[in-house]
Design brief:
152 residues; mainly alpha; 7 helices; 64% helix
Length: 152
C-alpha cells in the first residue's frame, strides 16, 4: 500500500480507539499510532520513511529483507512488551495499533505478508495492488472515515 494509505489508516484506527477510551494525552497517542503505521516500511529504502533514513533503511533491508521481520506481528508484540515496561501503557498500545494496522493492510496486497515470521511461513495475501485505483479509492474512503469520526 502507499504511504498515504498506511498513514491515513493509522490515523483512522487511532481516532477510533481514542473514542473508546479516555486518554491523558490524545494527541501523543494519535501521533504514535500514525508514526507506527508507517514504521514497518523502514526496511525498504524506497518507502517514504526509508528515504528519510536511507542508510539505516538500506542496512535493515540488506540484513532482514522487506516484509519479513518488520512485517511480523510477533515483532510488533515484542516491541509492544518492551514499550509497555519502559513507558506508559498507552504509548505501547498506540504503537501496537498503528503497527498491526500496517501489517494487516499489507496483507490485503498481492505481495502479502507473513504475519508470524520467523516462526511460520504462513502468508496472507489479497487482491490489491499498491498505488492502483483500488488503493486510491481505499485512501479516500479512509479520509471520509477520519472526517466522520472527527465530527461525530
Amino acid at each position: 500500500m502507499m504511504f498515504k494509505t498506511h498513514l491515513s489508516l493509522g490515523v483512522l484506527a487511532g481516532l477510533f480507539f481514542m473514542k473508546q477510551v479516555s486518554l491523558d494525552s490524545p494527541w501523543v497517542f494519535l501521533a504514535i499510532v500514525a508514526f507506527s503505521s508507517i514504521l514497518p516500511d523502514i526496511d525498504t529504502k524506497n518507502s517514504w520513511i526509508g528515504r528519510k533514513v536511507k542508510p539505516l533503511s538500506w542496512i535493515l533491508g540488506l540484513i532482514f529483507g522487506h516484509r519479513k521481520i518488520f512485517h511480523s506481528i510477533l515483532f510488533a508484540l515484542l516491541i509492544f512488551v518492551i514499550l509497555y515496561f519502559l513507558t506508559v501503557s498507552y504509548v505501547a498500545a498506540a504503537f501496537l495499533i498503528g503497527y498491526v494496522v500496517h501489517i494487516l493492510v499489507d496483507g490485503l496486497t498481492l505481495k502479502g505478508v507473513k504475519p508470524f515470521f520467523p516462526l511460520s511461513r504462513f502468508k496472507i495475501k489479497g487482491f490489491l495492488r499498491s498505488g492502483d485505483l483500488t488503493d486510491n479509492l481505499l485512501f479516500f474512503l479512509i479520509i471520509a472515515g477520519i472526517i466522520w469520526l472527527s465530527i461525530g
